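Hello K.,

You asked for the raw outputs rather than the summary table, so here they are, unedited. I folded two proteins back to back in the same session to keep the settings identical. This is the first:
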Amino acid sequence: MLLYLSMKNRLFLAIPAVLDDYEAIINDFSWVVSGRWVPPQNLHLTVSFFGDLLSAEALQEKLSALPFEVTPSLIRGLGYFRKSGILYGKVENPSLERVYREVDELFGLPVKEHFTPHVTLLHSKFFYDEEHFYGQLALYRDKPLGHLENELLLMQSELHSDGAKYRAVKRFGHDHH
């Protein structure tokens, strides 16, 4: 229980993601790698993780001052972070760097050097067949997979035994202020 008390808020700023055929990706990789797939309704790009830095109310107030411009973003191709064992969708949108910078500056967070905009799909545990995993990855190198929504969400993550449950606290974007 103590583990959760120190990070009870677990708040983060995210852009929701939509994949055209997530089931096909899962089918193409499930025979070569084991792990926990992110449920489709939880797919997102994390802009900034705040933890319990501030309350949800304080974050909403500060974030409302930013003129968010989220331009359409494509998810094209898959990548794999070896260190953390994460299979991800690559996000193509250079203007996202501006959003990261604005949020980091507003909250005095360290600037993300060499940050790769991505949507986490799988937290891998082990390979059944590592060679074929990388073969599958190559087949998805430049494949169009989906897009990011044109809105930012302040999300709250609650840890459960079967993974994290996310809840939207506040929406920001063109139609939400």
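The second followed immediately with the same parameters:
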Amino acid sequence: MILKNKYNQAMDHIVVTSEMETRILRKLSTAAMDAPVLRKRNIVAYTRKLAIAACFLVLVIGGSYIHRITELPISPPVATVNNQQVFDSYEELSESVEYEVKAPSIFSTENSETSYRLFNQTFVEITYISDQNTINYRMDKGVMDISGDYNVYTEISEIPIDEWSVECRGDQDGYRLAVWNDGEYSYAISSELPISIVEIADMIRSIQ
């Protein structure tokens, strides 16, 4: 009771002037305005921390995923060569083709290494490799250039050989390619070394 009386007496002696009242109100107003700013700054700081944490998490997960990918075994590419089939003899090749295969008989298989290949069931390729030269013979159904030779030659001639019109391509040293067709099948003979028209004619005439 005594303390209360003393408090009331002290309060009676406190005088608040108009100037003091103005300063107090201004400070209260400033404090009220600063409160939302402080809250906003706290929110921005929290958002930045959250974004940094999310980025760190993405880096950790991504790095782990990349590491797992690099550890996966790499399978070698599968090589496909147009359904290629390789045979040991002319007879085996002929039995696997739907039409009658014709090939030059002028080449001696005893004096050369001969390979027999079939592509896509109809494209025949026979290669004769000897000490003197390498000759490649091709046959396929249809009328087209099946040589596969896209070199530019300076010498191109249409040569009649028996009932066929043969296009021979080469240069000043001789011919390296001959292509022709019989209206149903296409043929091609290519030579690694230059050969003459006579040699080409002998090869074509020996086809049977």
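Residues 97 and 122 are 6 Å apart (CA to CA).

Happy to rerun anything if the numbers look odd on your end.

Regards,
P.
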